[in-house]
Amino acid sequence: MSFTQDVPHMPMQTEADVTTNPFLRDRYAIAGVGETEYLRGGGRTTRAMATIAVRRAIEDAGLEPSDVDGMLSYQGGDSTFAPFVAGDLGIRLNFYMDVFGGGTSTEALIGIAMGVIEAGMCRTVVIFRSMNGFSQVRIGGTGVRAAETVSGDMLHSRPYGWISAGQHFSFTFMRHMHDYGTTPAQVAAVKAIHSEHASNNPKALYRKRVTVEEVLASRMICEPLHLLDCCVETDNATAIVVTSLERARDCRHVPAVIRGVVGRVNKPRMDMHYQHGPISDVAAKYARERLWSNAGVGPDDIDVTGSYDAFTFTTMLLLEDYGFCKKGDGGEYVSDGTIRLGGRRPNNTSGGHLCEGYTHGVSMVVENVRQLRHDADDSCPIGPDGRRQHTYDYREGGCRQCRNVELTANLSWAGAQTTSGLVMRRG
């Protein structure tokens, strides 16, 4: 008897099965954002970096440390724990939680923050991620602390050569190419376009523009991934402040109002997701109805996306299965100019994980918050009012603020088998 015959039938969730919770729509907002520099070999502990990023996020909101009484973090690798960061800043917490997870942590933690505030457990929550992702614990299982990462599921996967994220995900990427004729050149456009955005981002690690041809000419890492299809590795910390919309309106900036969120939606199999087909489908297929129903909008309403780009392929798959284009049309969607600054729906306007720095998705939320404020921190001149005078000239070294941004979506990835999502509007 084959393995698949032993697995019980698991019916696909339909739109009618989705239970949504729109009653939290427009009740919470991101009031502040903060980050350290994106470096390689910064020489700082994750505790020091987290303290800097959290303090900057609180200051960005116009708050004092005493205004914060909740803290959440994505804990993993060489990260640090929330109570230590709180103590360093003189914050007494009414609630904290350090959550282990992958790239889907950010949006899920935002949902948890909304829930604990709604439950009356605290009033204002800071979420942070701090990681020495280049100099200490590298994602591929190498680096000075590599031995510490060989545990749990990796004990199963390492003997089979499934060590890096690219090796785990290559099944889905290759199958999409087989099923729909997607080409490496189409998907390489994601890197080329994100590099254009990063060239207008003074804090991006990689600011050099690259072409599709240069992506395809870079050395092969794991078929079909070339070196330039893969994200950067950086040492950094990032943070955001979540509070009620009522309170956020009294803060320093126009709030980024949370319309809807979904957290860690899974495919039927999490451990060996490729044993549940179609292999070329990702968890966004199951998350999208809940996200759009909670938010009260659809893909066509979104002005800017932040689609997780651990690899060029992840961006394409998420945009496709969240419904921004038809299944199988993702290659064309990411290569026809739609996601470019000045295009119909720009994506990862900071350069994302492929160019700016790797933060497990927090920086993508930070970027969309700034887009909603109409104040992306690019190279445009500062006016007399202290705000950037955006030129909307997207040539190299210029602007990266999109015109009239009202709605953004963040789409995250910890693998083909799980996703989180977030929709925000300008307050």
From TrEMBL:
Gene3D superfamilies, alphabetized: 3.40.47.10
Pfam families xrefs: Thiolase_C_1
Organism of origin: Chelatococcus reniformis
Name recorded for this polypeptide: Lipid-transfer protein
InterPro entries: Thiolase, Thiolase-like, Thiolase_C_2
Lineage: superkingdom: Bacteria
Domain Thiolase C-terminal: 282-378
Molecular function terms from GO: acetyl-CoA C-acyltransferase activity
